[in-house]
Design brief:
globular; eight-stranded mixed sheet; 292 residues; 8 strands; Rossmann fold; alpha/beta
Amino acid sequence: MRLVNGEYKQYINGVEHWVKIEGAENHTTPLVIIHGGPGGNLYSFERTTGPLLSKNRTIIYYEQRGCGRSGSPDSKDAFTSQDLITDFNDIHEWIGYEKVDLFGYSFGGELALEITHALPSKINKVIISSPSLIGLKTQFLIQIAGFMSIADTTFISVIERILEEQGTIEEKYLRIWKAADISTVDRLFFENQDLAKEYRRLTQESKMNNTGLMLKAIQNNPPVIPLIDRLRDITHDILIITGVHDRNSGIPISNLIHRQLNNSTLILFNKSAHFPYIEESKLFLEQVNIFL
């Protein structure tokens, strides 16, 4: 199809998906933006880095099933990785290009790798920023350590108490998140607290809530073979961007992914935490445009 700028509602696999095209006049290979969460949305990206990126690239936004401005499936369990891959495949068919580029951030980076593994002939280049690996218990430990690194003395005591309690690492991780206040979460995600406040303002302005259903479905229905054991099958050219202060998924996860992939480049952003595309947007745009 001939891409035309604008917002669309596409009925895909029983769910109405919100899709937006920007920068069609650039006539580049479409760059599909894959948001994080699981269960997040593109509202903040659409109002920060997205318009800058679309000055040079053709951008396709879409929000995953049950997320943001897209509709929800009938079943609370219909949020698995395979559901998301199937949705993407149909969106790709609607776009009408033989191949597209991908940019995924946080969980979106993990999903971009899943899509690339499942649909290799439909993907050109891939950019992942601060990617996650939800199936690894290591990621719970990274986030707990991240909280410790920015917590005040009161919250450090709370974390220590929770770690001494009975329960699995997942249960302790959830207790720590529930105990964290807004300013602590902002420090976890951002180095620049002015940008943290702006990100939170946009989140509140969007009036879009994460139901948590997607995370539960993915955790309850993991792939038979974990993604970490399939990364070596991926041969695409992949750029990994990670902030050196990322306390959410962090350099350990990015390094692990980088080592397993056949053809990847890892770039560290020295002034960023979990959102390099916001905290160092100029450098981010430079690196993305060079790579693509």
